[in-house]
Amino acid sequence: MDNHPEGCGGGAKRPLWPLILLVVAFASSALFAQYQKKPPDFGGIYSFPTPTHPEPRGIVLLSLDVAMLAVGLGLGAYFVLKRRSRNATLLLSIAAIAYFGFYRKGCTCPIGSIQNVTLSLVDPHYLISPGVIAFFLLPLIAALLFGRVFCGGVCPLGTVQDLVLLRPMNVPRKLDRVLRWIPFVYLAVVIFFAGWGLPTVTSSGKEIVLRRFLICEWDPFIGIFRLSGPFHMLAIGAGFLMVGMFYGRPYCRWLCPYGGLLSILSRVAWKNVTVTPDKETYCGMCADACPYGAIHDYNADRATCVSCARCYECCPREIVRLRREGIPAKRYVSVPGGRGPA
Amino acid sequence: MSETNTRRKFIDTTCRIIGFAALGGVGAVLTTRASAHAVFQVDPLKCTSCDLCRTSCVLSLSAVKAVNEFSKCGYCMLCPAYMDVTSAPNEKGVPSGKVCPQDALKRRVVGKEDLDDPNNNYYEYSVDEPKCTGCGKCIKACKPPFGNGSLRLEIRYDRCVTCNECSILIACPEEAIVRVPAPGLSPLLTQGETANG
Amino acid sequence: MEMQARRYTPVATLAGRGTAAEFKKSLSGVAVGAAGVIHALGDGEVRVFAANGGVTRAWKAPEQAACLTVAPDGRVLVGVPGRVEIYGAAGNRVGGFSVGESGKQADVTAVKMFRDTILVADASARLVRRYDANGVERGLIGNQHKTGSFMLPNRSLDIDVDSAGVVYATDTGRHQVTSWKLDGAPVAAFGRFGQAKPEDFVGCCNPVNLAVAPDGCLVTGEKAAARVKVFGPDRALLAVIGPEHFDSMCTHIHLAVDSSGRIVAADPVRRTMTIFGRS
Known about the structure:
- The complex is a heterotrimer of chains A (342), B (197) and C (279).
- Chain A has 342 residues and is mostly helical.
- Chain A is built from 17 helices and four strands.
- Chain A has a two-stranded antiparallel sheet with strand order 1-2. A two-stranded antiparallel sheet of chain A has the order 3-4.
- In chain A, a hairpin with a 5-residue loop joins strand 1 and strand 2.
- Classes of the chains: A mainly alpha (342), B alpha+beta (197), C mainly beta (279).
């Protein structure tokens, strides 16, 4: 289905043309006013009300969303890479889920923005909000700079899974390697459906090419934020949460298409979570602490690391450093069922 | 080895620069295209009041509401959208049944009220939005030739969460939900304005 | 099914689809002149039809012309928002006058003549205005209602005048046809809202059009179950010309009756005119 509004002409250039469309609309409404039959005159004591039209979310609030995202990404990078504090990152992610998850009901999200971007690149007439462009680019830029700080500190979907994580268990590495291809397959499917779609027959019998936003239709956790949803979405969400109690962030690692993009960019990030080889004691506590299997052979796998700062929190050297600086550090409790380096 | 390290650093830096350039390029292309905040609205000329607006919205109480364009309303006493004109008449001869299942269409007398002969009164009809479910029964009843067609379904922006993909848009059999630049296409035509003499 | 006292069947169709006289955009009025010559208003012009359905004359009418009538002397009067334009039988404009109070554009939905008096239906003021031959307003008809005007939820008023000078007007909000003397004194009112009986008027605002027959019968047009009813001089229902002859989307059926009692009904949706005769 063509998702473009009526009446838009050839190559749209700057956002000036919606204003022109509105002016034309009002002008033609004045013309149509001439043709309309006059409403009854009740003798001057009655003035015709005009139907109210509540305004959609204004530009100020839309800019606020983008600003909050940028601040969240910056704080995420700061808390993970500079302060190396799990608590701060956790608090940031809770604040982020409160704002982006429950207040904004999970919409707009960078994961879904892949679809808007695809559709806009395929169809030059598709209206894409500048806010959505920012939502698409900012976490990717942050990934190039600081790694997947979006995942660890901001993304509400990731935070939901983090909050239900009880007993992180290990996934065999070979299986993990295979599963990690799924996000890219999903990404390809999502791009196809968002940009091109498949022909279908509508309930009135018309044959159209229907573009679908699969990410939005199959978002497992949106039901939590909207507090309602169709049965199949709630069931899939519950399934992910149950898996997520034992295997950290299953959606993020093995399905999220945006996570796939972030993982590619995170590999070449400027600053990232690192296990510095010349300082560590080969105790393996960081690998134990990482629920996502991102530390192998005393190296942080940048593609998988979601910048949650759990490894920093448990590192004995880190605790020593904090004590030396006079900052009280909670003694890290070993993860039950812990295992050696994955 | 330091040589491997420098080479890796070089590859990393190059890839990073390519990454930034790609993102910058995509951003530039997108910004120069149809860049505008968009919302969804119902095209009243295509809408057939099929009740799918009530059931397809992701919200449990649909963001689609009936709206009365007062300047086109006939202010009829025997409003076919308000009362079910086929229902049994009461003692004054006025049909007693209501069209709206939620009783969301309200009316009040305009001007001096004639209590003896309701046929002498004009009524102002308005929609009680917290009750309206967007089912469209009143819209169907108001369409010409039965009425003036002043009632229409409209997506109300104080309720609509502006999903990326409007589920009503997918469900609508007439493709009557359109995506328009904000502040939203205020419908200019209602079905009342046709070429009828 | 009640037995109708009369039966009407279509005897001819004018300006049908595919004919040379076809109306392509609109058909907003019909009137019958002397000798049964049918005049129609549509597509921005007035067309005069011959008995065989061909157009003998046509001239351009003003934009937004909504109604027309043929004067006893053959002149054609066309109602336009805020004005009535008068044309000679050949189509040359011979005069006109403005209707309504200055500053308020009157919505002229019907115009009729009785001898020298011109009657103009002003739907925005919801009254009938009476003008003399020079276009000077002489009085109002319809303001002696309880509400001081007609109730017109569908914003359209149709009138006709019989040979005795009694003016008939559609009071659509009250579901009545009201009759008045030329000086505005009320004479009678008949009709009521109802869904069950065939003589009642259905829906929110009906009847939308009317015409007076030379034998005193009254012909009414309704919408939403578009049909034409014929009432006798005692206002008993004589015949119903059913919805099968008209488009279901009609909000008007423009009516005229010729001197032999045949009914000319113009369907503005299909843009054709059907002549019904008694069988």
